[in-house]
Amino acid sequence: MTTPASTGTIRETLLSDALGERYLAYAMSTIVSRSLPDVRDGLKPVHRRLLFAMRQLKLDPEGGFKKCARVVGDVIGKYHPHGDVAVYDAMVRLAQDFAVRYPLVEGQGNFGNIDGDNAAAMRYTEAKLTAVAQALMEGLDENAVDFRPNYDGSEEEPAVMPAAFPNLLANGSAGIAVGMATNIPPHNAGEICDALLHLIQFPDASVDDLLPLLPAPDFPTGGVLVESKESIAEAYRTGRGGFRLRAKWEVEKLSHGLYHIIIREIPYQIQKSKLIEKIAELMEEKKLPLLADIRDESAEDVRVVLEPRNRTIEPEHVMEQLFRQTELEVRVSLNMNVLDRDSVPKVMNLKEVLAAFLAHRMEVLERRSQFRLDKIAARLEVLEGYLKVFLNLDEVIRIIRTEDEPKPALIKFFDLTEVQAEAILNMRLRSLRRLEEMEIKNEHKKLSKEQSELQALLSSEGKRWTAIAGEIGKIKTEFGQDTDLGRRRTLLADAPSAIVVPIEAFIDREPITVVLSEKGWIRAMKGHGETAEDLKFKEGDSLHMILKAETTDKILIFASDGRFYTLGGDKLPKGRGHGEPLRILIDMANDVGVVAMMVHRPDRKLLVASQSGRGFLAEESELIAQTRAGRMVLNVEDGDKAAFCISALGDSVAIIGENRKLLVFKLDEIPVMSRGRGVMLQKYRDGGAADIQVFRLEDGLTWRLGERERVEKDLLPWVGKRASIGRLPPTGFPRTNKFR
């Protein structure tokens, strides 16, 4: 058995140390080379390499398209040694106008859609750069940024793009690294330019000063942003936060009072097909009772049609249900975690992101200007050499023809530099024209002027900031709010208040006639066509009360023990039978009767009173009972009972006692209470109250006498103070002591 050859020194290392070292290397690679964007150009390495490879292939906006497979091949072969699927997916996303606010790639062919369908294979699709991508790479050939070797050292790639376009905020970014993540929503490029120009003019401006110019994100799919200004400001001040984004909808009126709700824009990064499937699933599970149907009628634009269950439902109530239960409302987070110029991850606020972009633009301007100066200096040196020899072209020709080494001879005779001599020797014969001298002098003059301007630019920080402001202004003109691409798509709205969807919204509104018999049987019959003569009862029973209402109404029942009970119109027994005993629906004692039955009107006041003549005014909105046990309102003593419950619509009260004494007094003499015995309305020696009526004094007091109705307007003899005795009623008042 042979001993294996030694492979080197064996170093003992703790497993935890080895794992920590290797995992840290992996984490840093993920953070720096994959997941987090650079604050300067807003690109991750894969996107930067894609754009650079397309530029090398000369896929300019004005040029033609090339197969995406060719681009992906160049990217993974030269710069990004990863899977072709990942690279193609990144390229597809850069071309989707519903995924990227300002697309960097213009695609030709099937690049997917908002329903979530995938793009066609890369061999079928073609692409080229957009004007935005071209602006990102403007100056790459002018030493604007550093280049670094690619993964195998055979090529060079830019470490960062010159980025004339503010891509980080304009297109946003999202990624999950190891131990950290980033999520930057897209913004409006014109608004970003406004904020940049303001920051150039006022370097000490705060985030709050910038927010009026850059108020909120602007998503490619539009929608309505419904976040409070305070919350938005706090998110931009800290670099962390979130925004509520809702679908944009409108009401489409139809005939006969019907309507449809049309959804025109859906929230960012939500797949329309899955959204519709989710809503349909909730409908099947009976979790959206206000919605009858949903249809997708989208073509190039989004058009999702929602059909409410009936025309009486408010569209706001339908949408509130959908916002709560579906992705028609989403929360978009903000986490501005980016790599700074030293590739260090950092969460920046809005001002820091803008300042980093401006600092990068300053560096690019200085490097491009210095590059141009070096080019001008080299050209001027050559032109000065041309000017020297053009004065004696015959001697130049003689030296070249006769000298074995013409270069040293030219340098010595004309006092030239190496560069000048080399340029003269490389001149073509046809350039040796006399007229060429004027062109050389004009070019020399023009370049000298440009050289002076560039030197002045580099020596003055103020001039450099002015030049940067001009570049930003140019970007705003090309991609700002006045262009089709740059107009704001996401509307800004106030944070919505909580909309309470009333229970009535879930009920079909239908007319009903509520019938209560003397023996306490209650039923609800469809429609309002029933009359007392049409009704049938059990033997020995008869009509007690009849009320016209709707299924969405709340029915108030006032009992003789002073309690109010509440029943839903839709909960009453249906059909044309005898109904059900009222005491099955509410916990009312057997010895208690029903005094009044009415449709609840929350803005109304009621006058409640006992048979002894004590009572008060009650706000009807406070009389709703939440349980079967009812709500105690009018306290009555033993031997007394609640006897009256009438609408307090008017300014005066007429009360007549069993002693046939009539009293009229002002309504405002009766207090408003929520519970109690009330105050004495009329004083009696024996008996109690027979009837009460609230009316307008100027209209007069009315009562029915047989089939006729009589009005008495001269009521001065009966007008007095509350709790008075009153006097006998006018001649002809019914002997029943009842107004009706």
Structure notes:
- This protein has about 750 residues and is of the alpha+beta class.
- It folds into four domains: about 45-160, Topoisomerase II, domain 5; about 250-325, Gyrase A, domain 2 (2-Layer Sandwich), CATH 3.30.1360; about 360-490, Topoisomerase, domain 3 (Orthogonal Bundle); about 505-720, Neuraminidase, CATH 2.120.10.90.
- It is about 30% helix and about 20% strand.
- It has a four-stranded mixed sheet with strand order 14-9-8-17. It has a four-stranded antiparallel sheet with strand order 10-11-13-12, with helices on one face. A four-stranded antiparallel sheet has the order 20-18-19-23.
- β6 and β7 form a beta hairpin.
- α3 (about 70-80) packs across α4 and α13 (about 395-400) runs antiparallel to α14.
- The longest helix has about 40 residues, at about 350-390.
- It is elongated.
- The model has no long low-confidence stretch (mean pLDDT about 90).
